[in-house]
Amino acid sequence: MKIPFNKPAFVGNELEYIQEAIRIGQISGNGFFTKKCQQFFEEKFSRKCLLTTSCTDALEMCAILLDIQPGDEVIIPSYTFVSTANAFVLRGARIIFADSQANHPNLDAESIECLITARTRAIVVVHYAGIACDMDKIMSLAQRYNLFVVEDAAQAIDSYYKGKHLGTIGHLAAFSFHETKNIISGEGGLLVINDERFQKRAEIIWEKGTNRTAFFKGEVNKYGWVDIGSSFLPSDLIAAFLYAQLEKLEVIQSKRKSIWNIYNEGLIPLQRKGYFELPFIPDFATNNAHMFFLVCRDGETRDKLIAHLKKSDILSVFHYQSLHQSPYYSNLHDGRPLPWSDYFSSRLLRLPFYYELSMETQKWIIDLIHAFFIPEKE
Ligand SMILES: *Cc1c(COP(=O)(O)O)cnc(C)c1O
C-alpha cells in the first residue's frame, strides 16, 4: 500500500453545500457561503476578515495595504514558502532575510533588531508548523521602530500565542486553505485585518479596486474604480466547500492532534538516544497538529531516511530550501550567511500526515524509523 505524504480530507457537507450554492444561483464571489465563512472567522477572531483565493493572494493584499514601495525593506524569514517573500517583491520591496532559531524553524526574534534600517517598513513572521513566533518581542520591536507586522498564518489555524489566536496579533494576517493545510478548500485563503485603518481599503483592493462592496452595503449610490486592486475574492463554490470544513473544525483538529501524539510518543525514545530532534513547542505556544517533523543530525541521514521509507512506499518529504540561496534571490540577498535556515533545509523531514491516516499505518511508519536507526541484529 502506498502511503502518501498528504491526502485531502472530505469530512461532511462539502458536496451538499456546493449544490446549495448552485441552487441559490449566485456562485461568483462575496455570495452566501463567502459571508458564512467570513462570519465564522469574524466571530472567532472579533476582526474584519475577507476570504481570498489563496494565502498568497492575502499576502499580496497585505503588501498593497501597507503601501510597500520600490526600495522599501521588509524583514522575512529565509526558511519559508516563496509566497511570503514574493508578495512584497511584486511591489518592489527589498527582502532582508532573517535567520531561524536554533531549536525551531521560526524566525529568531533576537536576530531582527540589527536588520532594521531607515528603509524598513515591515516584519513578516511565519508560524511554522502552526507554532507561534515570539510575538511579544516582535510586536514591541515593531512599535519601537514604527514598523508593520504581517503574520503569515498559513499553517496556523486553531493555534494560539499566550491565549491569543495566531493571525490576530500583527497588523494584518493571512491564512491558507490549500489542500495541504488542516482546513481546506483546494485553493483558498483569508485576510485578517487587525488594524481597523486598513478595513475600507482592503474591501476595495479585494474587489478589483472598486468600491463595489460599499455600493452593496448602500454606502454609495454607484460604484467605480477608486484604487488599485485585483480579483482576490474566491467563487462561492469554493466558499461552500470551505464552510463544510469549518463546521468540522473541532473534529478535524482532534483527529490531527491524536495523530501528532502517536508520532511523538512513538519517536521520543529515539530522540532520547540522540538520533534526531522532535518539534519543540515553547510554553507560550499551542500545537495545532499541522505537521509532524523531525530534524536529523545531518543531511545525509535525512536523505537516507527518506529513501528508507520510500522503499516501503511511504512518502516522507523535506521542506523549504532557504530563500536567500534560491536561484531567484541569491544575487539580490545581502550575503549574510543564515546557518539555521540552511540547517533546517538540509535536515528537516516531514512524516505523512492526514486526517485518514490510521493508527496501524502510523505504528508501521514508527517501527520502520526505529529499524532505520537501530537495525535488528540477526
Ligand atoms: C501554504 C503556505 C503559503 C501559501 O498558501 P496558498 O494558499 O497556497 O497561497 C504561504 N506561506 C506558508 C508559510 C504556507 O505554508
TrEMBL record:
Gene3D superfamilies: Type I PLP-dependent aspartate aminotransferase-like (Major domain). GO terms for molecular function: dTDP-4-amino-4,6-dideoxygalactose transaminase activity; pyridoxal phosphate binding. Keywords: Pyridoxal phosphate. The modification N6-(pyridoxal phosphate)lysine is found at residue 181. It holds the Pfam family DegT_DnrJ_EryC1. SUPFAM superfamilies: PLP-dependent transferases. It comes from the Bacteria. One of its GO terms (biological process) is polysaccharide biosynthetic process. CDD domains: AHBA_syn (cd00616). The active site is at residue 181. Belongs to the DegT/DnrJ/EryC1 family. NCBIfam families: ECA_wecE, PRK11706.1. This is dTDP-4-amino-4,6-dideoxygalactose transaminase. The lineage of its organism: Bacteria, Pseudomonadati, Bacteroidota, Cytophagia, Cytophagales.
